[in-house]
Design goal:
Radius of gyration: 26 Å
Number of helices: 7
Strand content: over 45%
Structural class: mainly beta
Number of domains: 1
CATH topology: Maltoporin, Chain A
């Protein structure tokens, strides 16, 4: 039975040896510098979670790893980007698909900066690596804060067949999966892996919420074929073809409503017409029950071209995604010391979703009054990277490379803000019941050149560094094929058929990096690094057809049109700073102790806030954010056979270090901590593989993770301080109190992994915490706030086999 620690610290292994075993086998290989290196040797702060740990703890989505990487926050659900990931207090908005992710996503070497991919489930993963701090030199334009890298498993040298089935009691979910792997010939290997998951109660609604179905289910199918071909000593190719199908009955998922300082739920209010709907949500955000009602029956005529026009019942929520991912990596040895590598990636995602975006809703007759908005979000991306890498016997080696990306993000939606159809009836011209239909695609093209070199100054000193040049161009078209005639007449909105030419954004950047490494012995690695990062700006596409900006985009006066376009552009985000790292292996390599101290300044941090008064998003750049801190991680393979401990601790001091006025309030955030930046966070894990006999082994693992309090939105303390306090005076919505979570598992099976029976628990105490918060829409002068929470407790029983 494979050892699988609940948490892998920076040197936690996929197989934990005892004190009597050879610790040399406990080597983790990472690709933090685009080549395979030992984790203890690479001068980068990296947290690693092994494939065995992922499988043993039923970790199958990005949000599940937050208890294993301090200062990491992942939130799934919502419109726009539909997810957010932040590291050390730096991330990107979850409500805009115009932003690239500040924490780059990297799947089998292919960069995909669209945060929506965080909602995709994963399976048969060899290793997850979280690289902390700017990584632009090796990972490109969207790695200003770090990288989440996922590597799927490859074909094995010998034939293997593995399968597992599990049942989860809290959400009532079943999962079946497995793989077949082995050599088709002496030069060609294959691995076929697939998993199917059906969850009945992924989201449960509160009792009084008007809905036909209170249990929102989720199904996932993941399939992957990997071919690994090595026809000669000088050439190899690795092809991965992935398909992921996800069908969900909730978009907002774990989104709840905090009832503010008065502790009372607010009704939905349509200010234009003075109409309100009785609240049906409660004020308990800790019960793992959620308040999203069905859509209003009167909003049932969808504009032509909108998602849902082919559905009989548009009142029901859905979130359906089809994702195809292909990757071809080829390596050609030009000589004994030069290798040419090619990495080609293709992503095709089609996502359709719908949900109710007001926090409450019930008509006098008791029927649902949810204000729905069906969306279509697509992604088609092609990337190509070429690298030339040297491996000379001398002191100098290098890597030269070029990268190209062509990407189209599609976003179309029918929305409601003024809701005339609820009072006046359908649009008399078209019969549609929505306010407008918006179509806002983004086309991106990027090219970059990069080079790095490593110089062995002596047996103990190494100097490395390089620079990446990036040039990126984006173009956004804003179109409203349909606008309700009342809104055009009464509010001066653009008329149906309005469309703009492409609104352009372009920028280029040089991102240098320098690292000095000192290795006084094989077990000690000390390094100092200067790093920079870059994340491209763009054009805000969350626009309403009202106001002055959108009509002015088509003004006959070039100066007026350009001023309107400038109002939509947001600048590129850059980072600059350094870190000092220490990596060590002690006591015959049975103890690993690593630490990193860092200081980084982020300029033009891209932020977005929701203005509930006008139902609009304000996108801007914060002046400056400074982060400094210390990360420590450790592991101890004890003298007790099969027993190991590991853990990590992060101290983070982050604040807005320059004046930043929040557009929605005009308040200045200078001196305030950013969202999702706890001062302390960490974890402690234990793994014990206890032989009971020659044919039987007992396994136990546990993980305790903690975090101190943190702010949940880049808003102002003053605004929330006045409106959102409970009886004891503590901030509720804006600040999440510190908390502790507990994961664990116990298993019994054969030492050779022929069979295994496991009981696995995640978030055993069912702790709920806030990830993000925003003003709730349609509450008039109320003080309700929309908050996104984590997934609740899960308890699995699983049986697996392998031969």
């Amino acid at each position: 039975m494979a050892a699988a620690p609940a948490v892998s610290a920076q040197d936690a292994a996929s197989a934990e040896p005892s004190a009597t075993e050879d610790f040399e086998s406990n080597v983790i290989v990472v690709t933090a510098r685009k080549q395979e290196e030992s984790l203890q040797e690479v001068p980068v702060s990296v947290a690693v979670i092994s494939g065995e740990a992922l499988a043993a703890n039923r970790i199958d989505e990005a949000a599940d790893i937050v208890g294993r990487v301090p200062a990491l926050n992942v939130q799934i659900g919502g419109s726009g980007a539909s997810a957010q990931i932040s590291l050390r207090g730096v991330g990107s908005s979850n409500i805009s698909n115009a932003f690239d992710s500040a924490v780059a996503l990297n799947y089998d070497g292919v960069a995909v900066s669209t945060q929506r991919l965080l909602q995709a489930a994963f399976f048969d993963v060899e290793q997850i690596e979280v690289l902390k701090g700017p990584q632009s030199l090796f990972f490109g334009k969207a790695a200003s804060a770090g990288v989440l890298s996922l590597r799927s498993a490859n074909p094995t040298d010998d034939w293997e067949v593995s399968g597992q089935a599990s049942y989860e009691f809290e959400e009532q979910g079943v999962t079946f999966g497995g793989y077949v792997s082995g050599p088709l010939s002496e030069t060609l290997g294959i691995r076929v892996a697939a998993e199917y998951q059906d969850i009945e109660k992924y989201v449960e609604l509160q009792d009084d919420v008007p809905a036909l179905d209170r249990n929102k289910g989720l199904t996932n199918f993941i399939g992957r074929v990997t071919l690994d071909w090595e026809p000669s000593d000088t050439f190899s190719a690795n092809l991965k073809l992935n398909y992921n199908s996800q069908r969900g009955e909730s978009l907002l998922q774990f989104t709840d409503v905090f009832c503010g300082g008065d502790g009372l739920p607010d009704p939905s209010v349509l200010g234009v017409f003075g109409v309100s709907f009785a609240p049906t949500h409660d004020c308990d955000i800790n019960d793992s029950r959620f308040p999203t009602p069905d859509g209003n029956a009167a909003i049932n005529s969808v504009p032509t071209g909108t998602v849902g026009s082919d559905r009989a019942d548009i009142s029901q929520a859905f979130n359906d995604t089809d994702l195809f991912f292909g990757r071809l990596e080829m390596d050609l040895a030009l000589s004994d010391s030069l290798t040419l590598s090619s990495l080609t990636g293709y992503v095709d995602m089609d996502n359709e979703y719908n949900d109710s975006f007001n926090s409450t809703g019930q008509l006098p007759d008791g029927s649902a009054a949810g204000l729905i908005a069906p969306f279509s979000n697509t992604l088609e991306q092609f990337t190509q990277e070429i690298r030339l890498t040297s491996d000379f016997d001398g002191p100098v080696n290098f890597m030269l490379g070029a990268f190209y990306e062509d990407r189209t993000n599609g976003l179309s939606t029918s929305q409601n803000a003024f809701n005339p159809s609820l009072v006046l009836g359908p649009d008399p011209v078209t019969g549609f019941t929505f306010d407008w239909f918006a179509d806002r695609p983004i086309d991106s093209e990027a090219i970059s050149l990069f080079g790095s070199a490593t110089i062995d100054l002596s047996d103990q000193w190494e100097l490395s560094g390089g620079v990446r040049w990036t040039d990126e161009n984006k173009s956004t078209v804003i179109a409203f094929p349909y606008v309700h005639s009342f809104i055009t007449t009464a509010f001066g909105a653009v008329a149906s058929g309005f469309t703009t030419d492409g609104i352009e954004f372009s920028d280029s950047n040089l991102a240098p990096e320098v690292v000095l490494r000192y290795t006084p012995s094989e077990d000690i690695n000390i390094y100092a690094a200067f790093k920079t990062g870059f994340k491209s700006g763009g054009v805000d596409n969350n626009l309403l057809p009202t106001g002055t900006i959108v009509p002015n985009l088509n003004s006959s006066d070039p100066a007026v049109a350009e001023a309107a376009a400038d109002a939509l552009r947001f600048e590129s985000e850059t980072s600059l700073g350094g870190e000092f790292g220490f990596k060590s292996q002690l006591a015959n390599r049975s103890i690993v102790l690593n630490a990193t101290a860092y200081y980084y300044v982020f300029d033009n941090l891209q932020v977005q806030n929701f203005d509930a008064q006008i139902f609009n998003f304000d996108t801007t750049n914060a002046g400056e954010l400074t982060t400094l801190g210390i990360d420590v991680d450790w592991s101890w393979f004890t003298p007790v056979d099969g027993l190991s401990f590991s853990g990590s601790l992060a101290w983070l001091d982050a604040e807005f270090s320059d004046s930043f006025l929040v557009p929605t309030t005009g308040d200045d955030l200078e001196g305030r901590r950013p969202a999702r930046a706890p001062e302390f966070s960490g974890n402690v894990a234990v793994d014990w593989q206890l032989p009971l006999s020659d044919s039987l082994e007992l396994g136990f693992n546990g993980n305790l993770a903690f975090t101190t309090s943190y702010i949940t939105a880049n808003s102002t303390l003053q605004t929330f301080d006045q409106a959102v306090r409970n009886a004891n005076g503590s901030l509720n919505n804006l600040e999440q109190n510190g908390y502790v979570t507990l994961d664990g598992g116990i298993s019994i099976g054969a030492p050779n992994e022929a069979w295994e029976l496991s009981l696995i628990a995640r978030n055993l105490t069912d702790k709920q915490w806030i990830n993000t918060s925003n003003n709730a829409p349609f509450v008039g002068g109320g003080d309700d706030y929309v908050v996104t929470l984590n997934r609740g407790r899960q308890i699995f029983v699983e049986v697996g086999f392998k031969f």
